[in-house]
């Protein structure tokens, strides 16, 4: 999930985007560029010391007119009041960055890791939780949401999606967990990648994403194509949908660079060397993505969490992985098979002016639109579409669903293109019964 523009104090962050062309073959995650960010310049206030005139002694120079002293006292009190954080500003909120402390960190690969951040100022009612009651424990308020991290050294910010809570986790403590990767040249990811346990990070939020529940409506099928760390929003949506509906199904197609993101299996055959490529290709069928079963052999820290979700949801959650190092990227046929496996019944036509359930109205939409911004006008029994969701690096999204588009400083969905656009043209039922959402 990405924010369109973040402001930190007097600094303005402007994210710029170059549209990646649709590649003829599935892209390797190693060659997908991350979003470029440019920090706008700002005026620095120059402070000059004027020389004292006249022959006043230091004591005389320090003496103040009583009226001036009173004015300074009032002004100083006002400045203190305005600049001293209130209790609201000390806990997670959408206006100011607040301090968290990294309490744990687990390496997954040389460049990826999980870390947990705890608030320095406890809040019994975090903004991302519902209010608990004796009959209903607290739970996450939104099916899809993120927070901003700031990089204080260069004053930039970026959105990151927390991993869903594990069974038995005390939500009221307000701790958040993240799956991150250090990207060469990435200001924010490099900064976070060098922070260890005990270090301070600054967060702002929460920022709700698409209202998944209202778009899904009476339908029960989600196919989520995730690239790399884009699996975090996929896990959020999977938990929200599968916990809410016993008859829902969720298929995760996870594209990763190497299998160690999922499991530590050193003897997995890798990509053939260039000298043996042609002979290997003639002898062997094209490698295919594989379905993740149970148990996962030697799971990574993130693999354990996916395994726990498989245990909880059983056959309602299907997970397939495509691995760059094994040349098993996802193709259009794999996405089509996942959609067909859902065996979703034909959905009734949406009302022509219903914005949540018509693809054409999503082109100018922002991922971070307020809840209820697009009211449904369908008849009650007709509401809902199945969802194909795509999350990951910019080039990954462009290849599989078409590029997002910047309009007036806001990043919008843009038209559906790429592999998903071709599937919509080839399969009218897919175009009629499914929405495509880019994160």
TrEMBL record:
Region (Disordered): 265-302
Subcellular location: Membrane
Residue stretches making up the FAD-binding FR-type domain: 95-213
GO cellular component terms, semicolon-separated: membrane; mitochondrion
Primary location class: membrane
Residues given in the record as FAD binding sites: 158, 160, 188-189
Recorded GO MF terms: oxidoreductase activity
InterPro entries, per database record: CBR-like (IPR001834), Cbr1-like_FAD-bd_dom (IPR008333), FAD-bd_FR_type (IPR017927), FNR_nucleotide-bd (IPR039261), OxRdtase_FAD/NAD-bd (IPR001433), Riboflavin_synthase-like_b-brl (IPR017938)
Co-factor requirement: FAD
Key word Oxidoreductase present: yes
Keywords: FAD, Flavoprotein, Membrane, Oxidoreductase
Domain of life: Eukaryota
Family per record: Belongs to the flavoprotein pyridine nucleotide cytochrome reductase family.
Record-given protein name: Cytochrome c mitochondrial import factor
């Amino acid at each position: 999930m990405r924010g369109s523009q973040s402001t930190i104090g007097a600094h303005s962050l402007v994210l710029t985007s170059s549209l990646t062309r649709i590649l003829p073959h599935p892209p390797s995650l190693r060659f997908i560029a991350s979003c470029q960010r440019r920090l706008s310049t700002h005026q620095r206030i120059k402070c000059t010391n004027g020389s004292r005139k006249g022959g006043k002694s230091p004591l005389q120079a320090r003496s103040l007119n009583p009226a001036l002293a009173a004015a300074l006292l009032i002004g100083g009190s006002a400045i203190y009041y305005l600049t001293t954080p209130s209790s609201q500003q000390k806990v997670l909120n959408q206006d100011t960055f607040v301090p968290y402390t990294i309490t744990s960190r687990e390496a997954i690969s040389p460049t990826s890791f999980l870390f947990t951040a705890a608030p320095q100022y406890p809040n019994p009612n975090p903004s991302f939780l519902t209010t608990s009651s004796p009959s209903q424990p607290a739970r996450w308020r939104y099916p899809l949401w993120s927070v901003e991290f700031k990089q204080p050294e260069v004053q930039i910010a970026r959105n990151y999606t927390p991993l869903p809570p594990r069974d038995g986790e005390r939500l009221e403590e307000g701790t958040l967990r993240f799956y991150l990767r250090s990207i060469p040249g990435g200001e924010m990811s490099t900064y976070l990648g060098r922070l260890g346990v005990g270090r301070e990070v600054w967060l702002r939020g929460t920022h709700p994403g698409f209202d998944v529940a209202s778009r899904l409506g009476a339908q029960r099928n989600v196919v989520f194509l995730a690239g790399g760390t884009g699996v975090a929003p996929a896990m959020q949506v999977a938990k929200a949908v599968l916990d809410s509906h016993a008859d829902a199904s969720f298929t995760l197609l996870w594209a990763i660079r190497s299998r160690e993101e999922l499991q530590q299996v050193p003897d997995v055959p890798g990509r053939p060397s260039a000298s043996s490529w042609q002979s290997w290709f003639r002898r062997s069928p094209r490698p295919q993505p594989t379905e993740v079963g149970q148990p996962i052999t030697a799971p990574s820290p993130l693999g354990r969490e996916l395994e726990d979700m498989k245990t909880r949801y059983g056959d309602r959650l299907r997970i397939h992985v495509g691995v760059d190092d094994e040349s098993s990227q996802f193709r259009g046929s794999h996405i089509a098979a996942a959609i067909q496996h859902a065996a979703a019944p034909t959905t009734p036509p949406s009302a022509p002016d219903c914005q949540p359930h018509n693809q054409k109205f999503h082109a100018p939409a922002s991922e971070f639109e307020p809840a209820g911004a697009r009211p449904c006008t369908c008849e009650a029994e007709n509401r809902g579409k199945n969802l194909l969701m795509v999350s990951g690096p910019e080039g990954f999204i462009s290849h599989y669903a078409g590029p997002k588009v910047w309009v007036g400083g806001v990043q919008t969905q843009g038209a559906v293109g790429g592999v998903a656009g071709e599937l919509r043209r080839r399969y009218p039922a897919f175009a009629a019964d499914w929405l495509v959402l880019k994160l």
